Amino acid sequence: MAKLILASASPRRREILALSGLPFEVRPGCGEETVRAREPEEVVKELSRGKALEALACAADGDLVIGADTVVALDGNVLGKPADEADAYSMLKRIQGRAHQVYTGVTLMKKGSDETYTFAEATVVHVLPMDDREIREYIRTGESMDKAGAYGIQGRFAVYVERIEGDYQNVVGLPLAKLYRCLKGYREELQ
Question: Which of 61, 63, 69, 84 is catalytic?
């Protein structure tokens, strides 16, 4: 029986994929993330392909690997995970009071096959204005340090999200509805 493998260490992606009801294993890669692309949509596609390829090397024939990566984009510029608290402050200062896009790239690869499918999903997030005190208090929660754009919509930052346009799960880290539609053809192999 083929296995579904999630090539990500993200606990949020693990929680989202579990909602599908499909059994899966987690095998995060440990390679260096390098990107040549500049456009946010292409960046996440490239990163998701790299993660999937890394996990595919250790998979068995027939296994299906999911690679995923998420970035925040503001004015076409990619905001990844902050390097430190000063970087987190800078990111949050730039997105407060504005709309930005969250892109998640997903790649599906099947071991022993040339089957590869890569897509990117975009969601627009509108953030309420935040003053310096609010930004610093949010950073002190520690939530901002391991998240693209320095925030987690599913955590304390939720009070600053005015609205979103698109898939909420995409902002958290995995566009489950679109991914599930892609996995429908594999369900019998994976159960």
Answer: 69
